[in-house]
Target: Mor transcription activator domain-containing protein
Amino acid sequence: MSELSKDLTLEMLSSELYTQIAEAIGTENFYKLAEVVGGTTVYIPKPESLVRPVRDARIKEEFNGYNHTLLARKYGVTERWVRQLCGDGHPEGQLSLEDVAGDVWGGKNG
Model:
């Protein structure tokens, strides 16, 4: 790190965006960031995008074959997304409530 960077203050930064970033991570870390990516165009993803793999892993861990709706609500995603991640659910040969209701009420299996 440059000796000069130790005296860098927020007021010395040339743009409001730089000031916001330096306020969030500190001027020393902002300088380190400039050392790594300075002079390039950098896309910084939204926080939701950064934690998406963690969210999806938790959905898979908590999935029990029947809780699509609960997980969708808990993690703010659609049931369709939960099904895409985890599949439709119950193991082959095991009946679901929909299967039983269909038999009882003359539905698709009746």
Q: What stands out?
A: The mean pLDDT is 86.
